[in-house]
Amino acid sequence: MHALQQGYTDKAESYANKALQLINKQRSYDNDSLVSSYQLILMEQLFLAHLLRGETAAAVKELQKCVTVYQKYHGTLKHHRSSLHTALGLYAMIMPGCLDHALTQFNAALKHTSEPEQIAFIKLNSVVVHLKQNLPKDQLHALLESVEPGRMPGKCHSLKASSYCIQGMAALVEGRLTDAKRKLRETVVMANKADLNKLTSSAFLLLAHIFVDIGNQTDALEMVKSAHEIANRIPDISLQMWSCKMLEQLYRTDQPEKSGEMRELREKLSAKIEKESEESTSLPEHNLLQWLDSEFPSSCMSMV
Fold this sequence. Notes:
By secondary structure, the chain is an all-alpha fold. Helices cover 76% and strands 0% of the residues.
């Protein structure tokens, strides 16, 4: 789990698979609820690793396995339902044309949890959906107020750092550049302390947008180069695409060859995303996005 928080998806996947092998051995003679709970948590980590790498087909298949475990041991795993809806929301966020599903899944997740950290995580991602869809300002501002850094639960460093990033993103979208810069710099400081690489890369890219807006191409380029290096190291396909697009634009005038290289890389990533999206939407598991109110999904019931 720590490896995934740092953004190292390959390492996280390796650790999760090894742990699941041990759990499957334990399962042969012990079916208690704790074993089932650990199994579901590890499978959710595998789902997230696939999702961050842009492997949406593998991600939604892994999520269906999670739902199957949830159904099989429902009596002791009811508290995991919110996590499943949250995962579906994250899946919908990166699937073309599925942002409406993301918001409905996050709202469904909120109905099934009272955990402060889970609620904060869901609301932070809901803010991103609101920003992408340009939803009513009053809804956005109410959400932003509920996820201010000072309102993050306990001593959860990663949620507080994420809050600064989301607040900075919202300030940038609304044209409050000074406020945005302050909050994003705080994000970088907090993220670096805990090796939250995805968050660091995201903050660098948002800061680069600010530098572009004020005409500071030099600092913008340095920010994006750093973000791109992190995105490749993790790897995170969304950050790779974002940084490639910005580098293509920033190199265009003075370094056209490098701009061309970034364009080629962006096109390769775009083709991969399109291929994955087509495969994902053709899978029966994609219908899990329709699951909201019923106790279990009505279709697509595979067995682990």
